[in-house]
User: Which sequence fits this backbone?
């Protein structure tokens, strides 16, 4: 009888609290280019890598969000593009019961943390299938990136009002 009371008492608390779920993970867009093949494979110079990371969030329903983590990796050798790998790793996430600040953090930190290993593996597979040595992207601290984004938004809001007014005045 005490088990029934305990189970009955704990179930409503779990359903009324915040909830996070991964509904679907998928590749939204994918591209791999080797513009200088096959000559690029004989290039003796050291390759240079540049990574571009971006994120988009779209609200699909009251408690459903699509988060897209975009990664573009460009490898150049002797100032020529050896390869270009692009992936937009996406996911649909269910988030309920979060206040606005926590929801923003979940979408900006937790969701990209879920998506990144999939994007990382896809890029690694593309590069290797393209004839290049295996390459694994290093882990990314999305919490630090999110915090930096918050700092930039706060600085923009603090000084942005004047800059916007000056821009309008000069136009």
Assistant:
């Amino acid at each position: 009888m005490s088990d029934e009371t305990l189970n009955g008492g704990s179930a409503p608390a779990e359903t009324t609290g915040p909830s996070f779920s991964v509904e679907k993970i998928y590749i939204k867009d994918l591209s791999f280019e080797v513009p200088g093949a096959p000559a690029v494979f004989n290039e003796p110079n050291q390759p240079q890598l540049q990574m571009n990371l971006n994120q988009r969030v779209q609200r699909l329903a009251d408690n459903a969000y699509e988060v897209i983590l975009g990664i573009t990796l460009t490898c150049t050798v002797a100032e020529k593009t050896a390869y270009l790998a692009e992936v937009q790793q996406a996911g649909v996430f269910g988030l309920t019961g979060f206040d606005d600040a926590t929801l923003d953090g979940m979408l900006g930190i937790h969701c990209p943390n879920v998506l990144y290993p999939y994007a990382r593996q896809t890029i690694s597979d593309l590069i290797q299938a393209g004839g290049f040595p295996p390459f694994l992207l290093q882990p990314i601290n999305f919490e630090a990136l999110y915090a930096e984004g918050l700092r930039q938004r706060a600085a923009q809001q603090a000084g942005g009002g004047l800059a916007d007014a000056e821009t309008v005045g000069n136009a």
